[in-house]
Every structure is written in structure tokens, then in C-alpha cells.
Write a structure and sequence with these properties.
Layout lengths: L3 E4 L2 E4 L4 E7 L8 E7 L6 E6 L6 E3 L7 E6 L4 E6 L8 E8 L12 E2 L3 E6 L1
Parallel strand pairs: 2-11
Antiparallel strand pairs: 1-3, 3-8, 4-5, 4-9, 5-6, 7-8, 9-10, 9-11
Amino acid sequence: QVQLVESGGGLVQAGGSLRLSCAASGRTFSIYNMGWFRQAPGKERAYVAGISWKGSGTYYIGSVKGRFTISKDNAKNTVYLQMNSLKPEDTALYYCAASKTLLSSSGKVYDYWGQGTQVTVSS
């Protein structure tokens, strides 16, 4: 069993930065592939970025590539999402998720989810 708790969200002006953290409980965190998803008001939850269990592979959707960076610290049981040059369209509830099997953009493969942290970007 893995429990995930996100933090670091908030209100920021366009062009600003935020660093989201996702702290995991459980001794087996290191073997999980991790993903960040977001859900904007009135929209479906969407994949943002992912990182393989070793941290050797990272993946991003096109709209955040070059602005967001995902990283994983297995010693601290934490995955991060550094978000720079934020835009109003990045406003959403951000979730982290853990998958024991696949690293995928599909939410269906993820076994555990956090409760989310709100990111609001003002123009």
C-alpha cells in the first residue's frame, strides 16, 4: 500500500514558478513509476508528466515540455514537479499517481493517487 500526499500548490502570476511535491509512504516507493496529472474545471483529468521508477526516463506532454521538470528522490520517497513560466491555462488541480507496472499517460495503469494540490495562475 502506498499513500501519496501532494503539496506546493498555490496562486501565482503568469510567468511565475511553483514546485509541487508528492510525498509517499511505504517502503517500496522506489519501484513505482510516477506520474503527474491535472484536472481543470469542467475538463477531464489529463496526463502532464511521468518518470520511470529509476528516474532514468522522463516524459512530458507537449504543452509543458521545456517549462516543467519532473524528478524523483527515492531516498526521500518524494517526486517533484518544477513548474516554470506558468500560464493561466496551467490552472488545475494537480495529482500525483504511482504505477507498479507501467509508465503511461493513461490513468488506468496507476494504482495509487493523491488528493491533489490546487495550482492557480493569474494573468
